[in-house]
Amino acid sequence: MIQRDGANVSLWQKTVDPYEPIHTTAPGRNFDIIIIGGGITGVSTALQLQKSGKSCLLLEAHTLCFGTTGGTTAHLNTLLDTPYADISKNFGENKAGLVADSVKEAIGLVSANISAYNISCGFEDKNAFLFARDPDQEKELEKIAEAALKAGVELDYATEIPASMAFTKAIKVRGQAKFIPTRYVHGIARAFESAGGIILQQCQVTGAKENEQVELETGMGSFTCDAVVYCTHIPPTVNLLHLRCVPYRSYAMAVTLSDEQYPADLLYDMYDPYHYYRTEIVDGQPYLIGGGYDHKTAHEENAEQSFLKLEAHLRENFNVKEVMFKWSSQFFEPADGLPYIGKLPGHSSIFTATGFGGNGMVYSSVAAIVLTNILLNRPDHYQELYSPGRIKPVAGFANFISHNADVVKQFAGKWFPHEDIETLSALSKGEGKVVKYNNQKLGIYKDEEGNLHAVNPICTHLKCEVKWNTAEKSWDCPCHGARYSPDGRVLTGPADKDLEQIAIKTLVEK
Ligand code: FES
């Protein structure tokens, strides 16, 4: 089983063994391009670049698929979370057509990779059914269908949907797909290595200096390259993109059904947030995968409630036999509805791809296509559309950046009495919370053995206060989505420094 950035285990984690790269150390220190992040975006991009003749190094701070790739529900859609009506309104009708073309091309790239490298990952073409359940949703559905058709998405109105849920109107969208994301990523990672690419896991990047070349500091020494691509879900340090991407958390569950009525296609209702459903067969066992109950990261006091609501919803609409897996994961919603793919604002040799919303499985391949074209100086239709440079600079941003420069260890040398913290926090095993002790805030976690751990709950990115995620047992930052393990280690950026650990001692130890 592979590891992921949360306490819950997703269906995908058990579909592959941990990835073992060919190399455990890099055979060289200088590369054309270094890709940071071993999720679907990083590996897809690395493969395209390596195949195009670039010498590439891929660095992953944990292991492949550790982040959201291991926690997606793996729908490959041209029907996107941002309706084409909104894309059309914000960017124009032509651009909505370009978006539709790009995601169609992305599904084509996934399919081509699977054929070229003979990857067994359950990939199948599917239809997607979007269905309304009341008159207001019907009106919205008609608007979505009209704009999607204009953008070139192939769809029809449907009189039936592949589930026994009541509905009043539905559309059937052709040309969608599904797959097992971890098997796909491991397959293309092998193809990348076979083409001469290098993968290093457990290699955290701790700094980047941009001169004639980019120099990266990592846990495995320094590397130089002509260009760096951050495929870390959101780029680190402080950037305008942090003001334009809002972190959200979504919940998923894989269940078995007692009546074996597993939906043959992909399904979406129209509530806000919406529910989504599909089937996956893993090693002969079919599962219904349902998802929903999205909320802004760290804006839900009891995230565990979201699982209860999702289970109740699935039981209401399907004959659920047993809940086999439940998990949640984070995604970044872009301010204007489209992802940011290209040069990182304010940099000359650093690139990124972020803000995929709930469509990371297709936008990851859009990113691979666009970034490869940019880095090979090949013009395409999509670069301007997705350029992070479409963001206008914000007044006062310079002060905002300098704000980050003074992260200090405010608890260095201090310790807190175990007895007081135990009483004050009143935690059960496996729980965490932020408490106030003598006017100082502490993030306290009690592990399964009953030991207390304390951290400074101030996020090392831009000093927001982290909150305890009851579902995934992590400290999550509500501002830009950094996440930390119970003892404060960075799980996901944009933070690149751990939370400060604070000593707790019993009075006897004193
Ligand atoms: Fe930016 Fe925490 S992630 S302040």
How helical, in percent, are the residues?
10-25%
Strand content: 25-35%
Low-confidence stretches: 398-408
Radius of gyration: 23 Å
First and last CA, distance: 42 Å
- Average pLDDT figure: 92
Number of strands: 26
Shape: globular
Oligomer: single chain
Main beta sheet strand tally, sense and closure:
9 strands, mixed
Total of DSSP H or I helical runs spanning 4+ residues: 11
Q: Write out the distinct hetero groups bound to the structure.
A: FE2/S2 (inorganic) cluster
Structural classification? alpha+beta
What does this structure look like?
With 510 residues, the chain is an alpha+beta fold. The chain has helices at residues 40-51, 84-91, 93-116, 135-151, 181-194, 241-244, 304-317, 360-375, 383-386, 397-402, 418-425, and strands at 30-36, 56-59, 75-76, 124-132, 155-158, 169-178, 198-200, 205-210, 214-218, 221-230, 245-257, 266-268, 276-282, 285-296, 320-334, 340-343, 350-354, 415-417, 432-437, 440-446, 452-455, 467-469, 474-476, 483-484, 490-492, 501-505. Strands 3, 4, 5, 6, 11, 12, 13, 14 and 15 form a nine-stranded mixed sheet that branches. Strands 1, 2, 7, 8, 9, 10, 16 and 17 form an eight-stranded mixed sheet that branches. It has a five-stranded mixed sheet with strand order 18-26-21-20-19. α1 links the parallel β1 and β2. It is globular. It starts with 29 loop residues before the first strand and ends in a 5-residue tail after the last strand. The structure holds FE2/S2 (inorganic) cluster. The site of FE2/S2 (inorganic) cluster (FES) has 12 residues, from loops.
